[in-house]
Amino acid sequence: DPERRSFVGDLVAFLRTEITRLSATPDLVESLEVAVQCLEAVYQPAGQPDIDVWQLWRSARESAPAGDAEALKNEGNRLMKEEKYQEALVSYNRAICLDARNPIFYCNRAAAWIRLGDFERAIADAQLSLRYNPTYCKAHARLGDALTKVNRLEAAVAAYEEAVRLEPTNTDYQNKLDVTRQRLQEGATPATEGGAGGVNQGLAEMAARMMSDPSVHEVLSYLNDSNSIESLLNTGRQLAMQMGAQNPQLFADIRRLLQSNPNVADLVSTIQQQHQGDPNGSGGAPGPPPGAQPPDDAKPN
């Protein structure tokens, strides 16, 4: 395409001018020279440059009405409400081309990136927004949202703290800060580094090993002949003992995760109290937890 080759030729001319201007910084010059070589290899531009692309870009930006950028931002907001996130991203990109120093545009584009699942770009846009307005509380909160998605909880807490400091009456920011602090205290870690995801992976691996063990199949075969609760409980105890023997560390991790949940801890405490009252485990079905209300159909008429 001759037009594209001509455009690339104009762009290469600009890059060569930049190489001269940045001659005092060899690393940057080397990067620009590589870029020029790649463009020339692909497009093979010919002839002298027709226009000064840098001046053309500046003129176009300066002559663009401010209202156009605002209208594009509003269009992006509308598309976000309609859950058309890719289209919203295009609108925010166009708005930024017209007003590249507007922090709201970057903050809004960060929201689109989050919806599209590109959290690293969302982090970068939130940081760009804060570069142009360090006191923009929504950008701090959005940065916290993106950091939370990639489990960088300490940094997310710092971002939410700054948002709350700037806007202390915003309950949404405070709630996000509280939730993230709690996750940090509970020691949440990415699935690839342990935590709940690591436990799930460990369970899957242990299950695969158990199902290839003939003794497990023998235990499971009893289930077909089980005709009482007691025999089912005995089978469950045998399976639990075998699982614990195969992977004691996994069981310790599961116990730690369960005990970190206050609701589960209360339930375990209740069961232990009931078991202590009936050491043989034959006292019938356990009653409701202390203070629990009976269901409607169990209430007296």
How would you characterize this protein structure?
- One of its GO terms (molecular function) is molecular adaptor activity.
- Keywords: Repeat, TPR repeat.
- TPR repeats lie at residues 69-102, 137-170.
- By secondary structure, this protein is mainly α.
- It has three domains: 2-63, Single alpha-helices involved in coiled-coils or other helix-helix interfaces (Up-down Bundle); 69-186, Serine Threonine Protein Phosphatase 5, Tetratricopeptide repeat, CATH 1.25.40.10; 226-270, no CATH class.
- It is built from 15 helices and no strands.
- It has helices at 2-21, 26-43, 53-63, 66-81, 85-98, 103-116, 119-132, 137-149, 153-166, 171-185, 195-211, 214-225, 229-246, 248-259, 262-277.
- Helix 4 packs antiparallel against helix 5 (85-98).
- Mean pLDDT is 75; it is low at 189-199 and 278-301.
Spell out the key features of this protein.
301 residues, mainly alpha, Single alpha-helices involved in coiled-coils or other helix-helix interfaces, Serine Threonine Protein Phosphatase 5, Tetratricopeptide repeat, 3 domains, elongated, disordered C terminus, TPR_rpt, SGT, repeat
